[in-house]
Amino acid sequence: MDLGKYRGKRRKNKFIKKTVLALFTVILSAGGIIGLFWIPYFRISAIETSGPGESDAIKTALQPLFDGRIYSVLPQDNFFLFKSPRALQTLNEKELGVAQVSKKFPHTLSVKFFEESPWLLWCFENSCFYVNNKGEIYERAPQFSESPLPRLSISAGPSLKIGNKIADESVISFLHVVMDGFTGLGISQENIELVIKEKEVKFFTRESWYLYTDFTLDPERTFEDFRLLLSEKIKEKRADLEYVDMRFKDKAFYKFK
What predicted TM-score, i.e. pTM, was given to this entire model? Predict the structure, then answer.
């Protein structure tokens, strides 16, 4: 008997047994861990909504996110695996409004819609949307024969959808200052045209003239200069205006019809 070969065979058999046992332990452990994710108690089974959103439409839109599996083995609706940003993205894509989405332990998804006050009406192609005071597009609007809000159009800007802001914070702030200034003078605004690439904006009034300016300028100073121009130069001829051009710092041009 060759004792060396015998001892080698025994070592090989022991190694195989240990390998099989280790592999079995890993598979059993993995199966146990995967099984934990399938426990019904930790799977999202309720959608809690609040605010002006339509509950049934919300649940219908989000349901596909709960169906199916991750990597073919894990449930998509598991509380720990479910990603709230995916739900928020779906609500935006379905144009259901601006919401805050969060998970409530152990199996609830909370969708809270904000009560919004419309500031502008942004229109693109054949669709219009409400814009709130923060400059966020938050809800589809009906087609108005005569808009109750200033109508905003944007040229040469990024593609927008519900949940997006119409422009950078500085541009939104500029619009607020100028629009508030118009309101203070008792001048109603009809349309606003933003040209992002050229950094220009036109404020069209219901008096059939417009203010043309650069939104990178200081808004308070720009409107104060505009106010002085109206009161000191144009005066009672305001109804005959065609436009006021204030795109250049410390300069103003105007034209009558």
Answer: 0.66
